[in-house]
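hiii so um. not sure if this is the right channel but i have a protein structure encoded as tokens and i wanna go backwards to a sequence. like what aa goes where. can anyone help
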């Protein structure tokens, strides 16, 4: 992220948060390969759109297609009215996420969800809550 602009950083965190919280509709959790394929097809779509052409690149796997379909409206809302500058930024961020998936997979080849597991550990739930219940606050009265 060191060479991202502010908007690209925001997009990166939007996409990372989306991926960390994504729940597949039919209890089939996506694998890193599905994430990589979805990011690549979305990046290609945004790259084409930034050149003034409308062409929807589609991933080959069903899980990647579902992930793409779920992420598209999130990105469309984020880029509402921003034009081709947003499309270029989105394409750059999506390509970087695609590269990150490959990099993480290279470090842990046995785990087919290494990137998604990493995101799950790094991205916290809203309000910083965790799965463990907190002790209720205690008031000490003298």
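sure thing!! here u go:
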């Amino acid at each position: 992220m060191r060479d991202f602009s502010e908007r690209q950083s925001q997009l990166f965190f939007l996409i990372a948060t989306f991926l960390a919280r994504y729940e597949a509709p039919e209890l089939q959790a996506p694998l890193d390969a599905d994430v990589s394929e979805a990011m690549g097809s979305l990046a290609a779509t945004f790259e084409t759109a930034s050149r003034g052409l409308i062409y929807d690149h589609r991933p080959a796997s069903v899980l990647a297609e579902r992930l793409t379909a779920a992420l598209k409206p999130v990105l469309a809302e984020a880029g509402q009215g921003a034009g081709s500058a947003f499309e270029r930024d989105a394409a750059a961020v999506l390509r970087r996420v695609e590269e990150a998936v490959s990099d993480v997979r290279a470090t842990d080849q046995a785990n087919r969800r290494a990137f998604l597991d990493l995101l799950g550990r790094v991205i916290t739930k809203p309000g910083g809550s965790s799965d463990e219940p907190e002790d209720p606050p205690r008031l000490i009265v003298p």
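oh and The mean pLDDT is 86.
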